[in-house]
Amino acid sequence: MVDNRFATALVIACVLSLLASVYLCVALGTQHWYLYSSPAAREANASDLRALYEEFMDGEFDEKTYSDTLFRLNGTVGLWWRCVSVPSSAHWFKDPDTKFVLECRSFTLPQQFIPKYKEPGNHNSGEDLLRTYLWRCQFLLPLVSLGLIVLAALIGFCACLCRSLTPTLAIGVFHLIAGLCTLATVCCYLAGMDLLHRVSMLPDKVDGSLGWSLYLALISSPLHMMSAALLVWAARSHSQNYYRMTAYRVA
């Protein structure tokens, strides 16, 4: 038999874990981690912006090229996507009511491992190890987090079939590590963006802001930690009650 308090804690922990997992998956699959707000295109710079856009869509992968395009075309960037906002019509500056569409390119797996340089786009400037490993950690850590959640779910399913609370402590530890990995992902991302803006200055009248995808990832971290706390408490309390009951029956 499981005490009602433990059963309630387990149900709440499962709900929190499910919410956190959904938030994390949505955050990973969307590109609104960081947003740039750029001034509207004018006739004088329309041809330059179009050339940047074409290079962004069809050119080779280069950090300076795609960063400059993001800065100047209301770009959004995530862990796996980079997008720019471009007019749907052929004339970028003549029609003030032009509708804008979001054009995206994904970061391939090999591109995630490409080193970053002290001067973006200049391979002779030397590798920036800090930015390189921050970039790699920001996409590896959430995958580790999701893997731990899946593993915890499998262990929990087996525990339900066996009607045992013994693995609950391990499940709680997995959720705690998953929450820490998600929090570390957000920290690595913010640190990496700050370092990028230091070595590649934003143009005039261009502002950057955090997007809702990043906030979803940030919210999922404490949810996983709260779920872990409830699971660990249920496991420890049930274990203590079990030992006390066994000692009482022996006595």
From TrEMBL:
InterPro entries: CLDN1 (IPR042356), PMP22/EMP/MP20/Claudin (IPR004031). It is a multi-pass membrane protein. It is found in: Membrane. Keywords: Membrane, Transmembrane, Transmembrane helix. Its main location: membrane. The chain crosses the membrane at residues 139-162, 169-192, 212-235. GO terms for cellular component: membrane. It comes from the Eukaryota. It holds the Pfam family Claudin_2. This is Uncharacterized protein.
